[in-house]
Amino acid sequence: MSLDPSTIIASGMRIYFIRRREKGRAAPRLESGWEGIVWGTPALLSLTLLASISGMLSGSGLVALFWFGLIVVAAGALIVSEATKTSRVMQLATIILLAASIIVHAARNLSALWCPAAIPVSLSFLVVCVILLFAYSKRSQMSVNEANPAPAD
Predict the structure, then answer these.
(1) How far is CA 130 from the centre of its chain?
(2) To 10 degrees, what angle do helices 118-147 and 83-108 make?
(3) pLDDT tens-digit profile of 103-119?
(4) What is the spatial distance between Cα 139 and Cα 62, in angstroms, rounded to a whole number?
(5) Angle CA(77)–CA(86)–CA(1) in degrees, nearest 5?
(6) CA-to-CA distance for 140 and 116, rounded, in angstroms?
(7) Each residue of 10-35: pLDDT tens digit?
(8) Residue-level pLDDT at 143
């Protein structure tokens, strides 16, 4: 239920930043900060999941990890001031942290790995990880093609 409004808001803000650029009023820091929040959120949720299932943190420590982490990511994105770089780094962080969460969960709960309740959860995380990896690699391919256009005949 919350994915739809999040997608609408993120898309709307992306359109807003594109229009600002077209009008010659680009706001690269603000755009980078927004990308830090949009893509930092799933990365930090993955980090929070990893901290929880590894037993490193619990309760309010997980809440603090997420919110302080998001503040650091947003501040770092404002400093970097490159929205594309910010989104790419945070997407890769999400993939790595989610994959690490899957591996740690499987290792810690090996005896219950094939439990009927665990299979759909583990598979859904794995599917999300594969989809993100595919999208990330496809964007990397597009970036390479844009940087090195084919010569005109």
Answers:
(1) 13
(2) 150
(3) 998 888 888 778 888 88
(4) 31
(5) 95
(6) 37
(7) 999 999 999 999 999 999 999 999 99
(8) 67
